[in-house]
Each structure stands twice: as structure tokens, then as C-alpha cells.
């Protein structure tokens, strides 16, 4: 995974994204039913993300994924401190969601933890809140992620 400056000018950003297959067109985005993941809570795994994550203990480190044609972007935002990583699918080894039951509004639902493992053995860890658990599973079941995705 490569880190990129979250404040890049648009032409430079587009040039980098093109190295990862480029953006999807509006029609392709509609056919995929969106390219952005629900918001996840970053836990650990990448020193540059950890640095931002550890700034304020009481604040959430909100992350999300965005599909590109040959890769994906991971964004981290904590109190307007931003970090952005970009990777090719061939750098991925595994995406796994570990889940457990929780009681929520009188119903039994699921929450969990997402592990994104790269071939270089970097493992990014995210908490998956109960409110978005089902949609996170649907997101990583999209065709580009499917060969790497496991639910346990």
C-alpha cells in the first residue's frame, strides 16, 4: 500500500489514481451500487494511520474504503486530520470479518472486526459497528473484493 497526500491537487490525484485503474464512471458506480464503504472505526495496523489515530483518545478515527478499477483507497479522518492509502488488488492477501452477536434495541444483531491483510504481512484492523455490519459484508462481497473476502 502506498500513502498519498490527502491534500493533493486534482490533476496529481487523478494521475495517481490512474495507476490503480482509475475511477469508475457514473454508470459503472450505479451498476456496482456504489463504490464507497460504510464508515468503520480504525483500530491499528499502519504507522502513519496510528499516528493520527492516537492524537485524541476520546475521538473516533473514521475510515472508509473506495473502489478503483484495479485497486482501492482507504481514507482515515480524525478531527480533520487526514491520511490516505492506495493499493492494487494484487497486493491483498485476505479480507476477513470476525463477528459476534450483540443485543441492540431488543434484537440480536452482529458487530465485528475487519482484518485487511496484505501480502507484505501488513494487517489493518477496523471495528465494524452493529449499525453498519450488514452493509460492510455487502460491500466486501462486491466482485472486485470477493476473491479475498471471508466472513467468520
Write the SSE topology.
Layout: E1 2-4, H1 10-18, H2 26-31, E2 40-44, H3 47-53, E3 62-67, E4 71-78, E5 81-88, E6 92-104, E7 107-118, E8 123-128, H4 133-140, E9 149-151
Parallel strand pairs: 6-9
Antiparallel strand pairs: 1-5, 2-3, 2-8, 3-4, 4-5, 6-7, 7-8
Polypeptide structure, described:
With 152 residues, this protein is of the alpha+beta class. Helix content is 20%, strand content 42%. The chain has four helices and nine strands; from the N terminus they run βααβαββββββαβ. It has a nine-stranded mixed beta sheet. It starts with a strand and ends with a strand. The mean pLDDT is 93.
End-to-end separation in angstroms reads: 25 Å
Strand line-up of the largest beta sheet = 1-5-4-3-2-8-7-6-9
Low-confidence stretches: none
What's the SSE pattern?
A: EHHEHEEEEEEHE
Rg on CA atoms, Å: 16 Å
Coarse structural class: alpha+beta
Tally of individual helices? 4
The profile of the biggest β sheet is: 9 strands, mixed
Classify the oligomer.
single chain
Mean pLDDT across all residues, rounded? Answer: 93
Find the count of extended strands (DSSP E, 2+ residues): 9
**Coarse morphology:** globular
Measured as a percent range, the helix fraction is: 10-25%
Strand fraction equals 35-45%
Amino acid at each position: 500500500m502506498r500513502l498519498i497526500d490527502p491534500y493533493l491537487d486534482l490533476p496529481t490525484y487523478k494521475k495517481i489514481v490512474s495507476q490503480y485503474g482509475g475511477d469508475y464512471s457514473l454508470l459503472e458506480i450505479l451498476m456496482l451500487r456504489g463504490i464507497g464503504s460504510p464508515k468503520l472505526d480504525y483500530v491499528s495496523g499502519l504507522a502513519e494511520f496510528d499516528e493520527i489515530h492516537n492524537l485524541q483518545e476520546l475521538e473516533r478515527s473514521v475510515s472508509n474504503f473506495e473502489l478503483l478499477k484495479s485497486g482501492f483507497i482507504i481514507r482515515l479522518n480524525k478531527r480533520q486530520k487526514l491520511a490516505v492509502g492506495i493499493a492494487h488488488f494484487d497486493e491483498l492477501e485476505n479480507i476477513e470479518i470476525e463477528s459476534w452477536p450483540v443485543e441492540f434495541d431488543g434484537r440480536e444483531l452482529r458487530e465485528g472486526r475487519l482484518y485487511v491483510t496484505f501480502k507484505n504481512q501488513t494487517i489493518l484492523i477496523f471495528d465494524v459497528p452493529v449499525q453498519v455490519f450488514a452493509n460492510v459484508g455487502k460491500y466486501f462481497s462486491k466482485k472486485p473484493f470477493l476473491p479475498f473476502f471471508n466472513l467468520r
